[in-house]
Specification:
alpha/beta; TIM Barrel; eight-stranded parallel beta barrel; 8 strands
């Protein structure tokens, strides 16, 4: 059983683009950020191409996918966004829920009912193109099983509840939920990622979850970079998860 060894760090560069889009300028450049992050130890560059294009733009994605190294794209199961992903050809994708009014992703996907059909179609198209597909889910047994039924290669466990938990007891409860969901995903033959709300203070316990293969972190790294620089911020996080 591997505990946190050789765990991949995915560095989300969305908020580099958020700052650029505040002025609709050319700086700070997400591609330059990706290069710095990789040199500092990032195993994957993560970005989210939203329908509202509030940060990452189509051209950013295409240029990122030309760079050497692994690119992991987050997107909603919306046909026109899926088509862009098929053209850009990132190494892997994660289907996530998305609302225009949200400040950030608010929880895992709804995997049953009306939501299931577009998810199944997106998974099928992306996998047919040779792109590894994960689904962003709440850490629940039913969600893991539904993700498997939809054809996902990997699940990314939403760590929002863990990140917001106060006190040792509540934090422990949420960590146990993540661990149990992770065991089930492993037993069902799926890869296991985790992310959302993770930072320098809470990541170590998540990084120690058995069978976890990647953590995806963005906002806390970009925030830290304001004070120590992006290279140091990524290196510090890499050290914590290694």
């Amino acid at each position: 059983m591997r505990i946190g060894h050789n765990l991949k760090l995915g560095v989300n560069i969305d908020h580099i683009a958020t700052l650029r889009q505040a002025r609709r300028d050319i700086d700070p450049d997400p591609l330059a950020a990706a290069r710095v992050a990789r040199r500092a130890g990032a195993d994957m560059i993560v970005c989210h191409l939203r329908e509202d294009r509030r940060h990452i733009q189509d051209q950013d994605l295409f240029e990122l996918c030309k760079l050497k190294g692994e690119v992991h794209l987050e997107l909603a199961a919306v046909a026109r966004i899926v088509e862009i992903a098929l053209k850009a050809k990132p190494d892997s994708v994660c289907l996530v829920p998305e609302r225009r009014q949200e400040l950030t992703t608010e929880g895992g996907l709804k995997l049953v009912g009306a939501s299931a059909k577009p998810l199944r179609q997106a998974v099928s198209k992306l996998k047919a193109a040779g792109i590894e597909v994960s689904l962003f889910i709440d850490p629940e047994a039913g969600a893991v099983r539904a993700a498997k039924a939809l054809g996902a290669d990997t699940v990314e466990l939403c760590t929002s509840a863990y990140s917001r938990a106060k006190g040792k007891k509540n934090t422990g409860t949420e960590l146990e939920r993540l661990e149990l969901a992770g065991y089930l995903a492993y037993e069902m033959g799926m890869g296991l990622h985790a992310g959302h709300g993770l930072d320098y203070h809470n990541v170590k316990d998540v990084a120690a979850i058995p069978h976890l293969t990647a953590v995806n972190i963005g906002f806390s790294i970009v925030s830290r970079a304001l004070f120590v620089g992006l290279k140091a911020a990524v290196a510090e996080m890499k050290e914590l998860v290694s």
